[in-house]
Amino acid sequence: MSEADANDPDPEIDRINLRISRSFLEVVDESWRERGFNSRSEFIRYALRDAVNHPEGAGFWKDLAISEADLTDGEAISSEEMRATYGHDDE
């Protein structure tokens, strides 16, 4: 345990590091502000709780993460494929 952790006022809370692309972080920051969260951390905690409490949605989040990585690598799938996969027809 580091000295900073030993002096943490709440020993029940752990700090974690998360590595994501800068472009995705911009989307996350825009999302938490638009949705009225007080901070990025509050928004991420909410999203993690939702993923844990509703694991049936985990496939969507996994696919979203893979898509974000593909986009970063210059690869992507078409909107038609997304509609077919998730059954949305917003046209």
Automatic annotation (TrEMBL):
Gene Ontology biological-process annotations: regulation of DNA-templated transcription
Protein name (record): Putative transcriptional regulator, CopG family
Region listing for Disordered, in residue ranges: 72-91
All residue ranges annotated as the Ribbon-helix-helix protein CopG domain in the record: 15-52
Stretches that traverse the bilayer: none
Compositional bias of kind Basic and acidic residues: 80-91
Coiled-coil ranges from the UniProt annotation: none
Pfam families xref list: RHH_1
SUPFAM superfamilies, alphabetized: Ribbon-helix-helix (SSF47598)
